[in-house]
Specification:
The chain has helices spanning 23-34, 56-65, 86-91, 94-97; strands at 8-14, 38-44, 110-113, 119-123. Helices cover 24% and strands 17% of the residues.
Length: 136
């Protein structure tokens, strides 16, 4: 993440089998439109009703078919617990990020990080990525 200093970063936990998966096209549109000003990074996760059943290789293929060009990480745990990904540990512990202590509500929660590396906003899964445009 230190390489991203100077850009806003939008972190999204995704799942290919989720009802919010159509947001992938809106995320891609936002990324394409604003990629000079921010970076979008997706983290596939099976944490919510195991809606991400694909392997890492299958996830990359699925995302490519969806037209995704933003970075997609390996499948990981985003909810609090011993195997929670370090990025989501930071995002969900107020002692590390300064104010947010909540787990993601569901797949497609969106976390906006400032150019300086501070957590700015948490957007729930029902928030369409196009609504985040004005924050970038």
């Amino acid at each position: 993440f230190s390489e991203l200093r100077g850009k806003k970063v939008l972190v999204v936990n995704i799942a290919s089998g989720c009802g919010y998966t159509p947001q992938m096209s809106s995320l891609q549109s936002l990324y394409k439109k604003k990629s000079d000003a921010f970076q979008l990074i997706a983290f596939p996760s099976p944490d919510f009703r195991n809606q991400e059943k694909l392997s890492d290789t299958e996830i990359i293929t699925f995302c490519a078919v969806q037209g995704v060009t933003f970075p997609v990480m390996k499948k990981c745990r985003v909810k609090k617990g011993g195997d929670q990904h370090a990025v989501f540990y930071w995002l969900t512990h107020a002692a590390t990020n300064g104010w947010n202590d909540q787990n993601p509500d569901w797949n497609f929660c969106k976390y906006l990080i400032s150019e300086e590396g501070s957590l700015l906003h948490v957007f729930g899964p029902g928030i369409d990525p196009r609504e985040i445009d004005s924050y970038l």
